[in-house]
Amino acid sequence: NGRPAQSFTKTYDYDVKYSGESTEDKLKRFREKVREETGREDYIYLVNSLEDIAWIFNLRANDIQDNPVQYAYAAISRNQVWLFTGSSVPEGWLEEEFPSMKEQICCGIYRKDCICREGYPVVLMDRSRISFDTWEYYGNQNTKRIHVENPSTRMKAVKNETEIRCLKDALVRDSVVEVNFMYWLKQNIGRIPMDEVSVADHL
């Protein structure tokens, strides 16, 4: 069909010194939000939006060009988490991200249909962020489907102190690069050949 083959790149840990919050703590807040919204304890919440998985699990990769995300699915229950990734998680990731609950994490190999699993009496999904195939699959099972907005969508929009500090540091570094570039441009425009490509390469 002309589409490029799906590729899986090395997965790396987005350190807590940059994220400001471990995955364990994020999952506690995630579950609390689900409980507040639904009042349920007997559920599986399915996540397949890549940016949400990257944020929840503090994992990054380069499976999609120019985007630091990986192909992955996740299923979150009250006391268990299943994470399916194309590449194995980094060494030491479980110990760092789940200091007191690593035994609750099950990691598996990513497949197109790995999120389609039987035996869930209640499945929660955000219909605006789940694949149509997944929604339809559970509609054909003896499963109760409930639309619940993905809690991490709003959670990741509110930055913690560490994230704010890192954003400010990044802006300062970006500003230095921009000032240096503008100085170079003003000093050399009209003096040396340049076009959009050569200027982009210099930058």
What characteristics describe this protein?
single chain; 203 residues; alpha/beta; two-stranded antiparallel ribbon; 16% strand
Describe the structure.
The protein is an alpha/beta fold. It is 40% helix and 16% strand. The strands form two sheets. Strands 6-5-4-2-7-8 form a six-stranded mixed beta sheet.
The residue fraction in helices comes out at 25-40%
Shape designation: elongated
Enumerate the spans where pLDDT stays under 50 for 5 or more consecutive residues.
Answer: none
- Rounded to the nearest angstrom, the radius of gyration is 21 Å
Strand content: 15-25%
Order of helices and strands: EHHEHEEEHEEHEHHH
Number of helices: 8
* Strand line-up of the largest beta sheet: 6-5-4-2-7-8
* Largest sheet descriptor: 6 strands, mixed
- Terminal CA distance reads 36 Å
- The total count of strands amounts to 8
Write down the overall mean pLDDT: 89
State the secondary-structure class: alpha/beta
Quaternary: single chain
How is the topology of this model organized?
Blueprint: E1 12-13, H1 16-19, H2 23-38, E2 44-47, H3 50-57, E3 59-60, E4 72-77, E5 81-85, H4 93-97, E6 105-109, E7 122-125, H5 132-139, E8 144-147, H6 151-155, H7 161-188, H8 196-202
Parallel strand pairs: 2-7, 5-6, 7-8
Antiparallel strand pairs: 1-3, 2-4, 4-5
Gist of the model:
The chain is of the alpha/beta class.
